[in-house]
Q: What sequence folds into this?
């Protein structure tokens, strides 16, 4: 949840609680789960971008060709499967096994990812 001054609290806080107003605003009918479809680029990177400044997620699947991930700020690359190599603009490389992560500063972009599967969390649009 993004930071906001527009909060209606229903409990579990010492701050102002307005249960009646909350119940009057909430629609309790079931709805289909939201699904965010990725946008794919030419290098095989899928970008999940919900259109907010707080967050975007890039997915690089294992491929024979390296993929380039454009960074939008400080980012975290996380290895998911296989042995991935992530190389920044400075030429520094790091190997990521599943469960390992690396922090990339904004000036290291674009990242070149080869080998295994990697997710890169970064600021959004």
A:
């Amino acid at each position: 949840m993004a930071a906001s001054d527009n909060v209606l609290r229903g409990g579990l806080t010492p701050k102002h609680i307005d249960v009646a107003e909350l119940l009057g605003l909430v629609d309790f009918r079931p709805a289909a789960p939201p699904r965010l479809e990725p946008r794919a680029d030419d290098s095989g990177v899928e970008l999940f971008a919900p259109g907010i400044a707080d967050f975007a997620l890039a997915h690089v699947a294992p491929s024979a060709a390296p993929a380039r991930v454009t960074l939008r700020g400080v980012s975290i690359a996380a290895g998911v499967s296989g042995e991935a190599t992530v190389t920044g603009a400075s030429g520094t490389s790091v190997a990521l096994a599943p469960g390992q992560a690396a922090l990339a500063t904004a000036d290291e972009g674009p990242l070149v990812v080869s080998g295994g599967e990697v997710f890169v969390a970064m600021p959004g649009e």
The chain is about 5% helix and 40% strand.
